[in-house]
């Protein structure tokens, strides 16, 4: 039986990384066969590409180069981990996936979204998330939550991050069945309960512990 791919998306500081860890622990207790991945990264080659993408020294990177590097990291992750895991019936939780490239490089950088989707279809081998969460938060508030030194993407102007947020909201409008908007300002436990309810329905869990 094919596994499930659940992706977690959101603007900077939205709390998605906290929530994916909580639901991973929940599924580990109740379903067992579950993987936690991140993008870009997840495998050795993709982690090397991640370092290039986020390095502040690479501020002059062309948007086309940036998009293709994200896609390259994704292609390797899909080949090494995602495709085989889905075939084996594993539930995969992935911190970002193709929606991030559509939003950050498409809406954010102004690249052609049709082109991004075409390249995306190639590198993902047609694999689409069964369920996606978008954790929404007001842009300034989200950026203020980042207490460490900001990376190359996080340090971009507020106008860029506003476009990213608008892009995510547009994706929710276009695909409401797949993408669920979660308010990132809610209490952490309340958010977890909302996420858990959607995940339970997808994977056939009733009342996990």
User: Within the CATH hierarchy, at the fold level, what is the topology?
Assistant: Rossmann fold
Give unreliable regions as ranges.
Answer: none
**Category by helix and strand content:** alpha/beta
Radius of gyration: 16 Å
- Indicate how many domains the architecture comprises: 1
CATH secondary-structure class: Alpha Beta
The SSE string, one letter per element, is EHEHHEHHEHHEH
Please count the beta strands (DSSP E, at least 2 residues each). 5
CATH-defined superfamily:
P-loop containing nucleotide triphosphate hydrolases
- Biggest sheet features: 5 strands, parallel
* Count of individual helical segments: 8
Q: Which percent range describes the beta-strand content?
A: 5-15%
Give the strand line-up of the largest sheet.
2-3-1-4-5
* Arithmetic mean pLDDT: 96
For the terminal residues, how far apart are their CA atoms? 24 Å
- CATH-derived architecture: 3-Layer(aba) Sandwich
Instruction: Provide the helix percentage.
Output: 40-55%
What general outline do the C-alpha atoms trace? globular
Oligomer: single chain
Task: Give an overview in words.
The protein has a single domain, classed as Rossmann fold. Strands 2-3-1-4-5 form a five-stranded parallel β-sheet, sandwiched between helices. With 209 residues, the chain is an alpha/beta fold. It has eight helices and five strands; from the N terminus they run E-H-E-H-H-E-H-H-E-H-H-E-H.
């Amino acid at each position: 039986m094919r596994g499930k791919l659940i992706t977690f998306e959101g603007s900077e500081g939205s709390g998605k990384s906290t929530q994916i860890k909580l639901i991973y622990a929940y599924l580990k207790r109740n379903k067992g066969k579950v993987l936690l991945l991140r993008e870009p990264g997840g495998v050795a080659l993709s982690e090397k590409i991640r370092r290039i993408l986020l390095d502040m020294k690479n501020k002059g990177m062309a948007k086309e180069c940036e998009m293709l590097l994200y896609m390259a990291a994704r292609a390797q992750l899909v080949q090494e981990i995602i495709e085989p895991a889905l075939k084996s019936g594993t539930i995969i939780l992935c911190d970002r996936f193709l929606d991030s490239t559509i939003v950050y490089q498409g809406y954010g950088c102004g690249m052609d979204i049709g082109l991004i989707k075409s390249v995306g279809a190639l590198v993902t081998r047609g694999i689409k998330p069964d369920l996606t969460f978008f954790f929404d938060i007001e842009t300034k508030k989200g950026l203020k939550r980042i207490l460490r030194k900001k990376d190359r993407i996080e340090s971009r102007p507020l106008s860029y991050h506003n476009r990213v947020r608008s892009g995510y909201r547009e994706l929710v409008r276009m695909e409401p069945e797949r993408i669920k908007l979660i308010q990132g300002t809610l209490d952490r436990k309340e958010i977890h309960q909302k996420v858990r309810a959607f995940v339970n329905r997808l994977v056939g869990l009733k009342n996990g512990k």
